[in-house]
Amino acid sequence: MSRAAERLRLLINHLDRPPAAITPAPTSAQASIYGPPQRLRYTDDTDLLTPDQRLFYEKNGFILIKNLVSDEDIDRFRKEFERVCRREVKIPGMVVMRDVAIAKSEFVPDQKAVSKLQDFQEDPELFRYCSLPEILKYVECFTGPNIMAMHTMLINKPPDAGKKTSRHPMHQDLHYFPFRPADRIVCSWTAMERVDRKNGCLVVLPETHTSTLREHDYPQWEGGVNKMYHGVRDYDPALPRVHLEMEKGDTVFFHPLLIHGSGMNQTKGFRKAISCHYASADCYYIDVKGTMQENIEKEVKEIASRKYNLDDEITFKDTWAFKGRLVQGERTSL
């Protein structure tokens, strides 16, 4: 370990110790008065993340773990995705989204391309991703021991048809979530094949997780935009960005306020990834009426009402409470 890393390790050890365990050292000068030690804000000490990894996440809002999910598991998820696309299985509550511009899918040529499966919590095979021990041990570093799987997706970015609809605008995931605190929410995003700039890898803006939730809406793009693909208003494209190129099985964990998106898929193939947003079961729901999130509440309620024929009876909170699944510990609040 480098000298700098060793100093960081000692610092974190001090920060994570209870106040009673820290004793002052005698000096010849007048004693200074210190307040209670401050813990790191975004991570917990579970003895999994190294000091360098914890401080990287604290500073940047994301961390990439190489080769975390096995090829065998990813191949099983891919086969289940194919079954859904071929309509060999119908999953209650799952939303099958199709690209507005891609006329041909991979598996059913006379249908529009499936661009995303959302809310696959009732599919035992796909939901198995959310319960993988190798994923949960990292999730616990951010949420604590009581873990809810709140939002599930399998993203199938299609080759762009020339209208740039395969882009995903820069956004913050917290825009979609009516629960808090944000610091106890984390996304795991796993590449199901090599992901690079050619096929539209994730793009993140480091350190933006330390800011606040921004106003979101549909971007005014010339080729149109897919449903629910909201973006940050007045986004500054000159902000420093990082392209997360990943191999199959690599997994990135990131904060819900981190601004991120993805570019066009400029290849001829489809780019696949699977993800889950987790939250501490100790989180609580908030009322988003009168806030910047009111527009997403209205859109989600309209979709849910049409899907389940419930008129205005269903609330924004209801849609999330219905989707949430306990994957570790106790369901204490959510």
Automatic annotation (TrEMBL):
One Pfam family per UniProt: PhyH
Gene3D superfamilies: q2cbj1_9rhob like domain
EC number of the protein: 1.14.11.18
Cofactor(s) for this UniProt protein: ATP; L-ascorbate; Fe cation
Record GO biological process: fatty acid alpha-oxidation
Lineage: superkingdom: Eukaryota
A molecular-function term among this protein's GO annotations: phytanoyl-CoA dioxygenase activity
Catalytically driven reaction(s): eicosanoyl-CoA + 2-oxoglutarate + O2 = 2-hydroxyeicosanoyl-CoA + succinate + CO2; decanoyl-CoA + 2-oxoglutarate + O2 = 2-hydroxydecanoyl-CoA + succinate + CO2; 3-methylnonanoyl-CoA + 2-oxoglutarate + O2 = 2-hydroxy-3-methylnonanoyl-CoA + succinate + CO2; tetradecanoyl-CoA + 2-oxoglutarate + O2 = 2-hydroxytetradecanoyl-CoA + succinate + CO2
EC class: oxidoreductase
Keywords assigned by UniProt, alphabetized: Dioxygenase, Iron, Metal-binding, Oxidoreductase, Vitamin C
Pathway: Lipid metabolism; fatty acid metabolism
Keyword DNA-binding: no
GO CC annotation, single: peroxisome
InterPro entries for this protein: PhyH, Phytyl_CoA_dOase-like
Family, as annotated: Belongs to the PhyH family.
Entry protein name: Phytanoyl-CoA dioxygenase, peroxisomal
